[in-house]
Design goal:
globular; 8-stranded parallel β-barrel; alpha/beta; binds flavin mononucleotide; 9 helices; 375 residues; 5-stranded antiparallel sheet
Length: 375
């Protein structure tokens, strides 16, 4: 008997809980259709805005690799290295809403049962910018988008009233979400930046504005490394670089930490997890913390641009997992979702050894620090 991988998330039914996140894999009609053919449960389009977008000269994304033996980290492609992370300074879609509208229409006509979430972004500094959010919402939902993802998370925007700058302000999160909810006829997800002190505050803001789900994480602000030979940043234009976004394996534990704070604070709300997922074991972490769907970018970019092998592994991995745990009565994601959420406690509640066994810090016989001095 084949496993039931389908899920219902914010009222939308998905064939499986695995989505391509808003990024290059979903930047075109061709990619999105190939992604559906490959078996992804849904896609979130590359973020669509109303302001003209001009990206930096040269590459917008590269991949940082580590040498297994020496630990060297570099973007240079070389044999025997393992993927550490992706680094990007790409902006949102450089295609206009007029370019996207007929494409969303065609995609949904051809794939009525596949889920397309439209990622949108505008500013927040005045009424006109808030109206832009509504214009975008109406435009994409009229063409059949199944949901909206509001981008409060892009770490590198030219305008100060956009992207992660909204996601760092609880009140703005609430206001802008409410503006979209006022006209939305489909579920509204909010993608928050991880670059904030207490992400629970911004999640609270988004939920109070009516968000149906929180999505996290976008990439983490970061710099590319300096090549020790040339003394140049590994990604730069005419010698200059700027803060960009780190994704891929390196951010999985970071993103999980942010996610766990939110799923604990709002156990009855919906969450979609992103960051560092390339196989089912990675995705499982998010599910066990309470997420109802997960999204993938870096791993898909490196696998024929839309991740046909990645989605095969994710769905096969979930089927195998359900089969392995059939004796527990687990048949769907709902049966194991969130079962490790409450095992994360303040450090002060983690058991310490009994005092009879513990001499740390007081016993002159114990070595100083962690490393023993070689004899
Ligand atoms: C080149 C690139 C472009 C991206 N563009 C967007 C975007 O337009 N909108 C958005 O919400 N996230 C964007 N992201 C972030 C991804 O959707 C995702 O949140 C992030 O890469 C973490 O997932 P990963 O570890 O699977 O890569 C982009 C990421 C990359 C690498």
């Amino acid at each position: 008997m084949s496993s039931d991988l389908s899920v219902e998330f914010t009222g939308i039914r998905f064939d499986n809980p695995f989505l391509l996140s808003s990024a290059p894999p979903t930047e075109s009609e061709g990619n999105i259709m190939r992604a559906f053919d490959a078996g992804w449960g849904g896609v979130v389009t590359k973020t669509i805005g109303l302001h003209p977008v001009v990206n930096v000269k040269g590459p917008k994304t590269k991949f940082l690799r580590t040498d297994v033996d020496s630990g060297a980290l570099s973007m240079r492609k070389r044999p025997g290295s393992a993927l550490h992370s992706s680094w990007n300074w790409e902006l949102i879609s450089d295609k206009t809403i007029d370019w996207w509208v007929p494409r969303i229409h065609r995609i949904k006509k051809q794939y009525p049962n596949k889920v397309l979430i439209a990622s949108i972004m505008a500013g927040s500094e005045d009424e006109r910018e808030l109206e832009h959010w509504q214009t975008l919402t109406k435009a994409v939902q009229e063409e059949g988008a199944d949901g909206i993802e509001m981008n409060f998370s892009c770490p590198h925007m030219d305008r100060e009233d956009m992207g992660s700058n909204i996601g760092k302000n609880e009140r703005l999160c609430a206001t802008v979400t409410r503006v979209v909810k006022d006209v939305a006829k489909v579920p509204v997800w909010v993608k928050l930046t991880p670059s904030t002190t207490d992400i629970v505050a911004e999640a609270r803001g988004a939920f109070s504005g009516g968000a149906d789900a929180i999505v996290s994480s976008n990439t983490f602000p970061s710099l590319t490394l300096i090549d020790p030979e040339t003394l140049e940043f590994e990604m730069s234009v005419e010698g200059y670089t700027s803060s960009g976004g780190l994704g891929g394996p390196a951010i999985l534990p970071l993103s999980l930490a942010k996610m766990s704070q939110m799923t604990q604070a709002f156990p009855d709300k919906s969450f979609s997890g992103i960051g560092g997922i390339s196989n089912f074991d990675h995705a499982l972490n998010y599910f066990l913390l309470g997420c109802g769907t997960v999204q993938v970018c870096t791993a898909a970019m490196l696998d024929h641009a839309v991740g046909p092998n990645v989605i095969r592994e994710l769905t096969q991995g979930m089927s195998d997992f359900l089969e392995r745990h059939a004796d527990r009565g687990w048949k769907t994601l709902e049966d194991f979702r969130g079962i490790r959420r409450d095992r994360i406690v303040p450090q002060s509640q983690i058991k310490r050894p009994d005092s009879a066994d513990y001499h740390g810090g007081h016993d002159a016989e114990e070595p100083e620090g962690y490393a023993r001095v070689p004899s």
